[in-house]
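[step 3/7] inverse_fold.run input=structure_tokens len=451
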């Protein structure tokens, strides 16, 4: 069992992590990301300044499961110019202005010809939508409804200076942090969205910052952090790392962690995996309006990790759930939407979940026949001879009763109804007193179903 107070206790004083994560998200915000391309590389290089990521490339055209890695997309400029030479829409003003993966265009056309390639939100006329066309060859622009309404019925020059390189690659970041055990925790987030602050500058910044914090701690489990383009990134990683899949015992997909909603946890496909139960313990009584929702095969990369052939115990943590907040996939998802205090609270909630699974060891009583005498071991009274608080004594008794070589700390917390921290503290006191020893490694995971 690892020493120290845990990952959560290692975090700096309140206010510092949130401000640092927000500042990093703000640096990430203007970079023009997509599934592939230089924007992703620039993003990962920036994140490397926080956590020691290894940047990896997968060649375009590589077969990965039922997919192929797409051509690498880069766009240098994109604009619509009126007859007076004024740019009415310009990628330089906002990275959402061009449809992701648009092919090259340089044409003069009428507004009627251009109109099918323009995307707006008529019910929210001041916002730019986010649109992509990863796997269908087309091109387009996104703009506000007010911009569209201000365009006279005349001719326009349309330019998208982009390339789709079949000899390019898909880029992702990976960080492996070895622990005392070969069992791994997978932490994953997507890096493919352009200037959307909550989705997902917040997730990238938080996970990089968390990776640096984990790397500085002595952990029981090993941790693997992935910063990958959505869907195709997780599919590519799974396809190319099948020999490592069996080591992954727990996992979280992290995104949308900077706004004031939720927090929200989506269970893994298994539904009662230790990470699902750890999330439940952490979110009980959490600030805000915490939600635990069941798995569904739609969402972010958890649906790839939880596909039936892999069936990894990977859940998903967000604040507001994707698609359920008004700014989602629009230009309103900006740096005003996310706040340092929400980012810090998200960090502490995730750290709390990781602390639980990292401490979820199975223990065995050295005196399982009858109740050990706690008084002569200093486990009944305090140093002044006064009985310990009832909650402390009950934690000790519950641990002793369930330390039968079959129950982990999550089991004990759920069965007793006591806080996980109280169970963990009781385990440490009993271990020091010589009343507990670790069970064989093959039993080092919680086995009870969720209550």
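[step 3/7] decode complete -> sequence:
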């Amino acid at each position: 069992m690892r020493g120290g107070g845990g990952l959560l206790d290692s975090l700096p004083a309140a206010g510092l992590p949130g401000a640092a994560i927000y500042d990093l998200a703000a640096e990430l915000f203007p970079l023009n990301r997509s599934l592939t391309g230089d924007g992703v590389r620039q993003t990962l290089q920036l994140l490397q300044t926080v956590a020691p990521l290894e940047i990896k490339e997968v060649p375009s055209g590589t077969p990965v499961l039922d997919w192929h890695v797409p051509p690498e997309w880069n766009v240098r400029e994109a604009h619509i110019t009126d007859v007076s030479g004024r740019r009415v829409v310009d990628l330089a003003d906002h990275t959402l202005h061009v449809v992701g993966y648009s092919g090259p265009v340089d044409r003069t056309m009428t507004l009627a010809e251009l109109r099918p390639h323009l995307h707006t939100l008529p019910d929210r006329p001041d916002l730019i939508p986010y649109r992509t066309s990863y796997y269908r060859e087309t091109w387009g622009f996104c703009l506000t409804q007010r911009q569209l309404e201000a365009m006279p019925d005349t001719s326009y020059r349309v330019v998208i200076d982009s390339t789709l390189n079949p000899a390019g690659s898909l880029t992702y970041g990976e960080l492996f942090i070895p622990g005392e055990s070969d069992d791994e925790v997978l932490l994953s987030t997507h890096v493919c969205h352009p200037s959307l602050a909550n989705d997902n500058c917040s997730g990238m910044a938080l996970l990089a910052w968390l990776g640096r914090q984990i790397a500085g701690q002595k952990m029981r489990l090993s941790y693997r952090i992935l910063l990958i383009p959505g869907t195709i990134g997780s599919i590519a990683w799974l396809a190319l790392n099948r020999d490592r899949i069996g080591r992954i015992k727990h996992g979280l997909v992290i995104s949308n962690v900077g706004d004031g909603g939720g927090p929200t946890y989506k269970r893994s496909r298994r539904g009662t995996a230790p990470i699902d139960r750890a999330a439940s313990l952490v979110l009980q009584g959490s600030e805000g309006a915490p939600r635990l929702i069941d798995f569904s095969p739609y969402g972010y990369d958890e649906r790839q990790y939880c596909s039936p052939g892999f069936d990894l115990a990977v859940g998903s943590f967000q604040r507001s759930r994707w698609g359920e907040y008004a700014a989602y996939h629009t230009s309103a998802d900006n740096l005003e939407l996310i706040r340092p205090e929400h980012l810090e609270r998200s960090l502490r909630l995730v750290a709390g979940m990781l602390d639980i699974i990292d401490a979820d060891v199975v223990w065995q009583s050295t005196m399982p026949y009858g109740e050990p005498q706690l008084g002569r071991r200093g486990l009944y009274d305090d140093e002044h001879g006064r009985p310990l608080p009832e909650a402390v004594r009950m934690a000790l008794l519950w641990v002793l009763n369930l330390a039968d070589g079959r129950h982990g700390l999550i089991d004990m917390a759920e069965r007793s109804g006591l806080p996980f921290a109280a169970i963990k503290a009781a385990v440490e006191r009993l271990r020091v007193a010589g009343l507990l020893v670790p069970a064989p490694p093959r039993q080092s995971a919680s086995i009870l179903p969720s209550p």
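[step 4/7] annotate
The chain has three domains: 7-69+168-359, 72-165, 363-443.
The first helix runs from residue 7 to 10.
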